[in-house]
Amino acid sequence: MRVRRAREQGFEAAKKAALKFLESFKVPAAPGDRELLRCVARTSLRTKVYEALADQLTDIVVDAVLTIRKPDEPIDLFMARAAPAA
After folding, report:
1. Tell me, what DSSP letter sits at residue 86?
2. Mean pLDDT by 10 residues, the chain (86 residues)
3. Within a 10 A sphere around the Cβ of 34, how many other Cβ atoms?
4. Three-class SS of residue 78?
5. Residue ranges of the domains in the chain?
6. Can you give the pTM of this predicted structure?
């Protein structure tokens, strides 16, 4: 039981340290920064699909996100859903 508690405390301490680091490491970005969105989308897609396919999908995904973006509001990715098949 003590080992489990120590492990939980260790994970909690690591989480706090990671969040503190990320908060200090983040860089402000303009909401419509297309190149930054392309980099983020490409990086994310390459962890999920083959590199060539990720590169093809990158601009499609960025265009879709910018299409649903409302001016002066954060991007709401919960609005992004797959369209029903025609």
Report:
1. -
2. 84 95 88 88 94 95 86 71 64
3. 13
4. helix
5. 2-79
6. 0.62
